[in-house]
Amino acid sequence: MLHYHFIIDNVSISFFQIKQSPHMAIESFNNKPEPAPAKTGKRSKWIGNVLRREIVLGLQPPKEALLELELARRFECSQSTVREALLALHEEGLVVRYPHRGTLVTECLRDDMIELIKLRHDIECRGVTRIVERYNQLTHRALCELVQQMVEAAQADDEYKLSQLDQCFHMRLYEEANLPSVEPILHRCLIHNHRFKILNSKRQVPLITTAERHWPILEALDSGDAQRAHDALSSHITTVVDFGSNILSDEAISADAITAAKKP
């Protein structure tokens, strides 16, 4: 069983927990920061969650240097604990580590995002038939609970919490495809889709719309019609960020690529 951790309301939530407890509310605790865990392993995950949130929200902007010594002082821990957290972020593609040069926050580029959305589309839509075959009331209740919590996050104007719940929704759904080797790839696509949207959308779409656009996916799944579920997921994924209706076409070349091609 693969585990994916999301930090919501300063509480680290395991994707495994969400599967096992479909009615589990991701509760809104008070706004006091969660105290840092004493154990090194848990502490490095906590640090990783804090830095992940800052990177996704742009508080640690692209190309920003993350210095181990400074982070160790900030989090009052050893550099090895910070290094462990940075390695986890490196695996997710949120930072890049250079030998003897340090760690930089990765850029958030349009071309990368187009390819990741295409990849995500292929993964989720190709898994639809398998998902529909295994879809049951347990899964339905878990997904409904997550959408309701998305609505509540949107009403509270908490964009980061909404993005985390959104990722939980799609990971929980895809688990029904029973393709565990593919799940980490989808997880990485989701992280970067949401980061790009937050950094570039400038709230063009109300948060409540982002939350409620998951209901049609559930309605399609409830119908038991694999084609309808495929179409609902396809529309949902390709409109996460407005890259135009032809994003899945081989002709969907980015403006950056066209500009580069014109240079002598």
Oligomer: single chain
Radius of gyration: 19 Å
Overall pLDDT confidence: 84
Largest sheet descriptor: 3 strands, antiparallel
The secondary-structure element order is EEHHEHHEEHHHHHHHHH
| Distance separating the two termini | 52 Å
E-strand count = 5
- What fraction of residues sit in β-strands? 5-15%
The total count of helices amounts to 13
> Helicity range of the residues?
55-70%
Report on the structure:
- Helices cover 60% and strands 7% of the residues.
- With 264 residues, the protein is mainly alpha-helical.
- The strands form 2 sheets. It has a 3-stranded antiparallel beta sheet with strand order 3-5-4. A two-stranded antiparallel ribbon has the order 1-2.
- Strand 4 and strand 5 form a beta hairpin.
- Helix 5 packs across helix 9, helix 8 packs antiparallel against helix 9 and helix 11 packs antiparallel against helix 12.
- The radius of gyration is 19 Å and the shape is globular.
- The relative contact order is 0.13.
Q: Brief overview, please?
A:
The chain has 264 residues and is mainly alpha-helical. Helix content is 60%, strand content 7%. Strand 4 (95-98) and strand 5 form a beta hairpin.
